[in-house]
């Protein structure tokens, strides 16, 4: 009797795990923190939370070899991080390679979190800089050079915005790396809703 119960439990758990991986339909609703009226203190708190989560989970640990590879192939040792929020993903990368092997990163955002970036620039002098003024990722401008990166932010763009962002990088002749850890399935949705 015990053996049959364990088999039923195992089948039930496996069924639940399969259910969690069912893809969810894409519904574009936008995010509140992307709105100009959204309180800056709350936006900064949200991006600071993401920074802590990236450090805790190591979600972007695999990005460092890719970033080094792009630097080697392109000869570009500067990175311009777009939609940086609190600098979360790069903050996690910098913990593994504080000097970035001579590379540097500059943070930027439509809603700059200068306080978080200034703390990172102080912690990693000569490696981290930031753009204090708002920067539109779809129209960066020639004065901001470097391989462009986006971490957990490309999903904020609709199709037309994503195309403009990619076209702007192509027109500038710079590489771009887009990193996303989000999943459009029930597991991803529950994780987003349940993470403190």
Please characterize this protein's 3D structure:
This protein is α/β, with parallel strands linked by helices. 46% of the residues lie in helices and 10% in strands. The chain has 7 helices and 5 strands; from the N terminus they run αααβαβαββαβα. It has a 5-stranded parallel β-sheet. α2 (40-57) packs parallel to α4.
Alpha-beta content class? alpha/beta
Rg calc: 19 Å
Poorly predicted regions: none
Major sheet: 5 strands, parallel
Distance between the termini: 40 Å
The general outline is globular
How many DSSP helices? Answer: 7
- Major β-sheet strand ordering: 3-2-1-4-5
Summary tags:
single chain, 196 residues, alpha/beta, 5 strands, 46% helix, 10% strand
Question: Topology, pairings included?
Answer:
Layout: H1 2-20, H2 40-57, H3 63-74, E1 78-81, H4 88-96, E2 104-107, H5 114-123, E3 128-130, E4 147-151, H6 159-172, E5 176-179, H7 186-194
Parallel strand pairs: 1-2, 1-4, 2-3, 4-5
């Amino acid at each position: 009797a015990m053996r049959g119960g364990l088999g039923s439990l195992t089948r039930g758990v496996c069924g639940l795990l399969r259910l969690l991986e069912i893809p969810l339909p894409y519904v574009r609703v936008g995010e509140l923190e992307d709105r100009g009226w959204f309180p800056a203190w709350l936006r900064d708190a949200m991006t600071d939370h993401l920074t802590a989560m990236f450090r805790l989970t190591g979600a972007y640990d695999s990005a460092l070899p890719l970033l080094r590879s792009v630097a080697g192939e392109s000869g570009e040792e500067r990175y311009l991080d777009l939609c940086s929020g609190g600098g979360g993903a790069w903050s996690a990368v910098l913990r593994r390679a504080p000097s970035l092997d001579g590379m540097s990163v500059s943070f930027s955002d439509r809603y700059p979190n200068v306080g978080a970036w200034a703390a990172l620039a102080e912690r990693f002098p000569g490696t981290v800089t930031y753009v204090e003024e708002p920067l539109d990722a779809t129209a960066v401008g020639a004065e901001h050079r470097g391989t462009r990166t986006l971490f957990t932010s490309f999903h904020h763009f609709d199709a037309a915005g994503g195309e403009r962002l990619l076209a702007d990088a192509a027109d500038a002749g710079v590489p771009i790396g887009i990193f996303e850890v989000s999943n459009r399935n029930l597991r991803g949705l529950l994780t987003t809703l349940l993470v403190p």
